[in-house]
UniProtKB/TrEMBL annotation, chains A, B:
Protein's name according to its UniProt entry: Nicotinate phosphoribosyltransferase
PTM comment, free text: Transiently phosphorylated on a His residue during the reaction cycle. Phosphorylation strongly increases the affinity for substrates and increases the rate of nicotinate D-ribonucleotide production. Dephosphorylation regenerates the low-affinity form of the enzyme, leading to product release.
Catalytic activity: 5-phospho-alpha-D-ribose 1-diphosphate + nicotinate + ATP + H2O = nicotinate beta-D-ribonucleotide + ADP + phosphate + diphosphate
Pathway(s) annotated for this protein in UniProt: Cofactor biosynthesis; NAD(+) biosynthesis; nicotinate D-ribonucleotide from nicotinate: step 1/1
Amino acid sequence: MSRETTTDLYEVTMALSYLREGMAQPATFDLFVRDLPPERGFLVVAGVEHVVDYLTDYRLGSEQIQGFASVLHRPPEDLEPLLGITFDGDVRAVPEGRVVLGGEPVLEVTAPLPVAQLVESYVLNQISHQTALASKAARCVLAAEGHPVVDFSLRRTHGIEAAAHAARAGAITGFSATSNVAAAVELGLPAVGTMAHSYIEAFGPEEAAFRAFADAHPGPVTFLVDTYQTEQGVRTAAQLLRSLDDATGSGSAIRLDSGNLEEEARRARSILDAHGLPEVRIVVSGGLDEYAIDDLVRAGAPVDVYAVGTRVGVSADAPYLDTAYKLVAYGDRPVMKLSTGKVTAPGPKQVFRRNGCEDVVALAEEAAPAGSRPLLHPVVRKGTRIGPAPGLQHIRERCAADVAALPEEARRVTGPTPLHSSTSPRLRALTDRVRRHIRDAYLPDASL
Amino acid sequence: MSRETTTDLYEVTMALSYLREGMAQPATFDLFVRDLPPERGFLVVAGVEHVVDYLTDYRLGSEQIQGFASVLHRPPEDLEPLLGITFDGDVRAVPEGRVVLGGEPVLEVTAPLPVAQLVESYVLNQISHQTALASKAARCVLAAEGHPVVDFSLRRTHGIEAAAHAARAGAITGFSATSNVAAAVELGLPAVGTMAHSYIEAFGPEEAAFRAFADAHPGPVTFLVDTYQTEQGVRTAAQLLRSLDDATGSGSAIRLDSGNLEEEARRARSILDAHGLPEVRIVVSGGLDEYAIDDLVRAGAPVDVYAVGTRVGVSADAPYLDTAYKLVAYGDRPVMKLSTGKVTAPGPKQVFRRNGCEDVVALAEEAAPAGSRPLLHPVVRKGTRIGPAPGLQHIRERCAADVAALPEEARRVTGPTPLHSSTSPRLRALTDRVRRHIRDAYLPDASL
C-alpha cells in the first residue's frame, strides 16, 4: 500500500465534495499540540523532514484511485477528479530539534483546499508520534547530565518504522548511539550492542562465552554479567579483561541488566577497580527511562552509559500528543471551530520567540516584536522543497541549544512546569471577530 | 533499509561468534509475556502472520552484509559467514486471535543457533506491539456490549505501519470498520468516515456543508454536528435528513466529537426522534477508549457506534508488553537464566488448555492432560509456511469464542483480575534440575 492510500477515508470524501463544489481556493491548516501531557515541560519538534518528503512526492495515481473507489463501492470514474493530484502548496514549519510549547503551530500547510485536506492523516501521524518520541528522549538526555544515553528500543516499539523514528528522535536530542543497525546506517550513527543472556547460556560457563566473544571481536568489548549471578559475572569479566591486551581493556565495559542497578553498579565498580580496571565502563539497561536515570544520577551511582529501551521508544508515560490539524483560513476568510473544549484560533500564524522561550503566537502578517525571531520557516514552496534537508548534526545542535535555554522548571524530570506562550493582541482581536461572525451568521438561536 | 537490516547489532555480533565457534546446533527460543500490565485480565495474540512472512522470506544478502560491516567498522569479508543465511528452522505458535496469559509461550522458534538469534529483534517487535494493540482493542469490544466499534486511530499511531497493525488488531477482535483506507483495502474491511470540522468551516454555514456532502455522496451520510454549537448542528442535520429521500435518511447518522457525550447523545436522540428520524444513528468519537465506552454503556447513553482513536491505537494505558525471547534449549541441553526477577523456565514447551482458560505450561514432549488441547501449533517447518495463512474472519471468530469463554473477572473493563497458568510437575522438576546444574557447574562460590 502506498503512503497516499494510508489516509482516513473522510479526507477522500471531503476532497471529492470540495472539487464538485469548485472549492479549490487556498486553505491554510495549522498543526499544533493543544496541551502538553503531564510530566512534559516542553516539546522537541520531530517528523518535519518525513512530512516534507511525503508532500514533495505526493501523487494520486491509478493505484490510489482504485483503492479509494473500492472502499467507497463506487466506480473508479467517480474518483477521477482526484487522479493526478500532487501537493502543489506551501509549508512553513518549525525546524526539527527546536523546542515548542503547547498551542504553538508546529507546521502550517497552505494549498488548494482538497489537497491540503487530503494530506492531513499522514502529516498528523508523523509529527505527532515523532515529536512525542523526541520530547521523551530529550528528557533522558537531561536526566543523564552528560553521561551518554544510547537507544535499545527496537524490540518493543510499535513496529519497525517506529523503531527507526525512535532511533532518530534519540539522535536529534543527543543520544550517542543506537542498537538498531538499519537506523545507524541510514542516519550515520554509531551502532552499539554486544551480547544477550542467550549468548552466555548457549556456552554455559560465562568465562567461555566472554572469551569466545573477545576472540570473534578484537578491540573493546562489553560483557553482560548478570546471566547467573551478577557479582560472580563481574569477577569473571574483570579477570578476562585483565588478561586481554591493553588495546582491548581500555574502551571495554560491562553491562548490568537486572536487579538494583545502583547497588549492582557500586559493587561492580569496586570489583573492577580492585582488578586495576578503572577505565572499564559500566553500562546499565533494563526498563530505564528518564525517571530511573535521574534516580541513579542523583544517587551518584557509578554508571557510565545509560541504555534506554521500551519505555522511551514508546514514550510510555505519554504515548501520544493531543495534536490537531485545523483549518484556519479558506480563501480570504479566517475560520475557526467552537466545539466544547476544542476552540481553535483563526488565520495563518507565526510564533515569535525571545529570551529563551518567551513566545508570542501572532498572525503571520505581524512584524516581529523587538528582540524576537520567528519559529516558522518556509520549507516547501509550490510543492518543492526549499533548500537541502538540514543535517542531523545541525538539528542536534539546535536541540541542545534550545533545551539549554529553557528555565529549570520546564527542564525538571519530575513535576516539570509547562511553559505557556501568549497570544498577540491582533490574534486575540481576530479570534473575537471571527467568533462574533460565526454567532451572527450561523447561530442566530445560540447564546455564545 | 530491509527488514533484515532492522536488527539489534548484538544479534549480528553474537551470530558471528557462534559461527566462529561452530555453534550451529538447533536452539529453541520461547517468546512470552512475563507479566500482564495493570488493567489487563488477558492478552489476544497478534503479529504471528507478520512473523511467519518475515521468517519465510528472511535472507541475508550483500546489502545486509554491507550494512553490518559498515556499522561494525570491519571489512565486508569478515561478515561473509553470514552471507546467504536464510531462516531454515521451525516455528510453533499460538494462532492469532487466541487468548493467552502471562508466562505462556506465544511463539517458539527452533533453528540453528545463529539463525534463531538473528531474527530476534523483528519477531519480538511484531508480537509485542501487535499483541498489545489487540489486547486493548478486545477490551473496547467487550465494553461496547454488542454496539459496533470502529477504528479511527491512523492520525496518532506510532507511524503508518503501526496504524495498519492497529486496524488489523481491531479487525481481529471484532471492530466493524476502520477509517484507514490502505488497511481497509488490504484486509478487506469496511472503510468508514465522512467529514471533519474543517469541511464545515470551509463552507461556513453547516446547512450548506451538509447539503453539499449529500449531493456528492448519494446514499447514507454521517453529518458531524459539533463544529459551532451541537444542539443547533443536530437540528440542522435533522431537517436536512428529513428532506433527503428515504434511501438516504435510513442508514444515515450524526457524529458527536466533543463535550459531555452522554448528555449530547441524549439531546441529539430527542431531537432526531422529534424529527421522525428514529433510524438515524448516533456515532461518538473523541478520546474514547474502553473506559469511556463502558461509562457510556452503563449510563444507557443512546449511542449506536463507538469510534475509537488514539488511546486505543497506541494502547495508551499499557503501550508495551513485558515480552521476552529467551533461549530455552541449545542442542540437547535445556538452559535458563537466573537474573534477579527475570528467571526463565528451560526447555521446549507446550501450553495445554481446558475449561475455558485453565492453562498448564508443560514440556513440549508431555502428553496432553485429559480434556485439554494444545495452544502451540506448527506454523513453519524448515523455513516453509505450513498451510495457508488463516483468513481474518477465522481469526476473528477464534478471538470472539476465546474472549467469550473467559471468566467475568478477567473480562472486566475496570480492575480485571489476570488469570494465571500453572506449571506442570515435569517442567518444575526440569527447572529445579537446570538451576542446580548451573549452580554446581558455573557458580561454585554462590549460594542460590
